[in-house]
Design goal:
The complex is a heterodimer.
Chain A (H helix, E strand, L loop, with lengths): L1 H13 L18 H11 L9 E5 L3 H12 L3 E6 L11 E2 L1 H6 L7 E5 L1 E5 L5 E4 L9 E4 L1 H14 L3 E11 L8 E7 L9 E7 L1 E4 L6 H5 L7 E10 L2 H6 L3 E5 L10 E5 L4 E7 L6 H11 L1 H4 L3 E11 L7 E2 L2 E3 L15 H18 L9 H29 L3 H11 L2 H13 L7 H29 L1
Parallel strand pairs in A: 1-2, 1-11, 2-8, 5-13, 11-18
Antiparallel strand pairs in A: 3-7, 4-7, 5-6, 8-9, 9-10, 12-15, 12-16, 13-14, 14-15, 17-18
Chain B lengths: L1 H8 L7 H8 L5 H6 L1 H13 L1 H25 L20 E2 L2 E2 L5 E2 L2 E2 L1 H17 L19 H35 L3 H6 L1 H16 L5 H28 L6
Antiparallel strand pairs in B: 1-2, 3-4
Helix pairs in contact in B: 4-5, 5-6, 7-9
The chains are: A alpha/beta, B mainly alpha.
């Protein structure tokens, strides 16, 4: 569909007469985007004696992959990152498809998780992962390693990496004027004041994370967010063997009222954490409960680092404005239920960059909002089913303890495991065998009914 | 009850609790004593973190445990031995073996007493909800509620509710039929042929099924909002094209 649109507007450019029914009025419905983009690109000026200049603000997975795609296609790219050695607090899990799609070298993956344990509120433990094929795994990475790799690759392809903190931007008055960015350049000097600098670019990609300044400057609006709290614990070697390639997920009201607690293995330690949207003030209590639930397995461990970070729960109301687009956490592309964000950040960065490359014809033309809207359309169309399914799962299975018990019970089923891993590792919602789906639906309802029935009996005991 | 009062008064110094429980309950398999040692220490550690929490679990411990003794003897006719209280922080039960309920101990007249199994699991979950404990690899919990056959669930949970709902439907049906008959003169058989009456019947049945408590009316209203909320948050970007302003969901 993208290529068809491309062909149609090149044809129009060559024609001399203006088709009368094409207007430059913004249209309200997305499916009419094609016409909008066509007319605007017809009036977009060809850039003389220079290439398109794009600034990518934020050098995480989103920024790094966006900068790489832009630079590879001949666009003058500036990647502005405030802390080049940032150890971002993060779960650090990447799906298998990311390794292939982004050509990641296997040495940045610290561990290959092939087994997961789900633990219910009443400590019913279910092992999942038997359906994984030998080459399938969930990769655990250190964010500082991954981010640095992607940035270096962008630099090798021609992007200029600037160590600076974005402050604000001036908006252009028309489609020809540039955006003026003001930032403080640190140039790798730690503790220094930095120098105020000014940069003129034609388009901006905001990849600066959950507390995005770019989002604030374009009035993108707010989102609900979860607080994720994590402690890195170095545990004795014999206990580390258990977590060799196994990650744990604890569910329960004690651990989190609307999310889950986790123990994820990292390079030489484990990360024990939890998160919540609705009860942020109680996060320390939830963390204590998580540590208590994992007590036997992390006994004797030493906490080496405590960290916390907001995680967006849904996209911001406005993800682009003019020639500024948001990607990654700044846009709010974190899934519900699992809280996964790294892959979607990198993919959205790449998709946005690709839309800019296409709209500007490898940097030869100025772009406009319509080209960036193409990225949003493509993104929503490709990943909306994934997000919706995970939202439904969260709504159904994270509501209450009986629902979580049912959830863990369901995870014991092999069909569920296969579907879950297939959709997680390859990021495609694949409809399975209808008969198995029906059996799964019946089993789900059965589990939920049983767990809720037990809960009703529990309430009777309380009284 | 005197047991609970005695233990409550000892709630502040946790170190004295262990010998005291040993004094009151004579049966104590040594295996369970050693396995609960680590959790005793963890209990002390968590007491240091949150001093107030020590007395709270000790207080709530007694509530489920004391009524359990008479309940145990009434519910499961086979086993009348007293319920064991191990250390106050770990769930223990003579019928709970190797992380699941030992169905052989729930026999009644040669058949498994599923009601007792359900009761036992309810007590276990209630206990763990009030006193969450560490999941351990040495004694993993592997109980699956689907081992209890579907008819046991039906008999215990579905049938009473079904009786209630059918009763309500019958009462509503009788009165509505009488009312419509007295207002329009159309008899019951002729009412069934009328489209409007059939609609009323459908609404009545759906109403009885969905609205079982007063709170359900609010719940049903909120449910529709909830299912479409996430979609609205995603569509917010596209709506901005016309409004031009901020749309905060």
């Amino acid at each position: 569909m993208a290529s068809v649109a491309l062909k149609s507007f090149t044809a129009l450019r060559r024609s001399t007469s203006d088709p009368p029914h094409f207007t430059t009025q913004p249209l309200t419905l997305p499916h009419q985007q094609q016409r909008f983009r066509v007319s605007a690109s017809r009036t977009s000026p060809k850039l003389s004696n220079r290439n398109l200049r794009v600034a990518v603000i934020g050098g995480g997975p989103a920024g790094g992959s966006a900068a790489e795609t832009l630079a590879k296609n001949g666009i003058e790219t500036y990647l502005i990152e405030r802390k080049l050695d940032n150890c971002k607090p993060c779960g650090g899990a990447i799906p298998l498809c990311m390794v292939g799609e982004f050509d990641l070298p296997l040495d940045i993956i610290d561990r290959k998780v092939t087994k997961m344990k789900m633990i219910s509120p009443s400590n019913i433990a279910v092992d999942i992962g038997q359906t994984l094929k030998p080459h399938e795994y969930i990769g655990m990475v250190r964010r500082e390693v991954l981010d640095a790799y992607l940035r270096e690759r962008a630099e090798k392809n021609g992007a200029s990496v600037i160590n600076g903190l974005f402050l604000k931007m001036d908006f252009p008055r028309n489609n020809k004027e540039p955006y003026v960015l003001y930032y403080t350049e640190y140039d790798n000097k730690k503790g220094g004041m930095g120098e105020k600098r000014r940069l003129e670019v034609d388009a901006v990609i905001g990849a600066d994370g959950a507390n995005s300044r770019v989002a604030k400057s374009i009035n993108a609006g707010d989102y609900d967010y979860a607080i994720a709290f994590q402690e890195r614990v170095r545990i004795p070697d014999e206990k580390m063997i258990y977590y060799e390639n196994l990650a744990e997920m604890y569910v329960g009201d004690d651990v989190s009222p609307d999310f889950y607690g986790w123990v994820f293995p990292k390079c030489d330690h484990v990360a024990v954490g939890t998160g919540t949207v609705t009860h942020k003030g109680d996060i320390k209590k939830f963390q204590l409960a998580t540590r208590k639930r994992a007590k036997d397995k992390i006994l004797g461990g030493k906490i080496i680092r405590v960290e916390a970070h907001p995680i967006p729960e849904h996209p911001r109301p406005r993800r682009l404005s003019g020639r500024v687009a948001l990607v990654g956490d700044a846009a709010g592309y974190v899934t519900k239920c699992s809280g996964e964000g790294i892959y979607f950040a990198a993919k959205s960065g790449r998709m946005c960059a690709e839309a800019i490359v296409e709209g500007s014809e490898q940097g030869k033309r100025m772009i406009d909002e319509g080209d960036l809207r193409k990225y949003l359309e493509k993104w929503d169309k490709t990943y909306w089913p994934t997000y919706k399914v995970l939202d439904v799962l969260q709504k159904v299975f994270y509501r209450s303890n009986p629902a979580r018990e049912a959830f863990v019970e369901m995870c014991a089923d092999e069909y569920v495991q296969k579907m879950t891993f297939d959709s997680y590792l390859y990021k495609k919602v694949v409809p399975g065998n209808p008969l198995d789906d029906l059996k799964l639906a019946v089993n789900t309802i059965g589990s939920l009914v049983r767990a809720n029935a037990l809960r009703k009996e529990m309430e009777k005991l309380r009284v | 009850m005197s047991i609970s009062i005695a233990l409550l008064s000892l709630s502040s110094p946790p170190s004295t609790l262990l010998p005291k429980t040993h004094f009151f309950f004579t049966h104590k398999p040594t295996l369970s004593l050693t396995s609960t040692r680590p959790s005793f220490f963890t209990f002390r550690a968590s007491a240091a973190d949150n001093g107030a929490g020590v007395s709270a679990p000790a207080a709530t411990v007694e509530e489920p445990k004391v009524p359990e003794a008479p309940e145990g003897s009434v519910g499961s006719n086979g086993a009348v031995e007293p319920e064991e209280v191990m250390v106050l922080t770990k769930f223990g039960d003579p019928k709970w073996i190797n992380g699941t309920w030992d169905l052989k101990q729930f026999q009644k007249d040669g058949q498994t007493n599923w009601d007792a199994v359900i009761d036992a699991e309810v007590r276990r979950r209630k206990w763990l909800e009030d006193n969450p404990e560490s999941s351990s690899n040495d004694d993993p919990v592997v109980f699956d509620t689907s081992i209890i056959p579907w008819w046991a669930w039906m008999k215990r949970f579905h049938l009473p509710e079904a009786e209630l709902l059918n009763g309500r439907a019958a009462m509503i049906g009788f009165f509505m039929a009488y009312l419509v008959d007295s207002l329009t003169g159309v008899g019951l058989v002729d009412q069934m042929g009328n489209f409007f009456c059939k609609t009323l019947l459908f609404v009545a049945v759906v109403g009885v099924l969905l609205i079982r408590k007063n709170e359900d009316i609010e719940t049903v209203k909120k449910l529709l909002d909830e299912t479409t909320f996430y979609d609205k948050q995603w569509q917010a970007t596209w709506q901005d094209e016309t409004s031009g302003g901020n749309k905060k969901e």
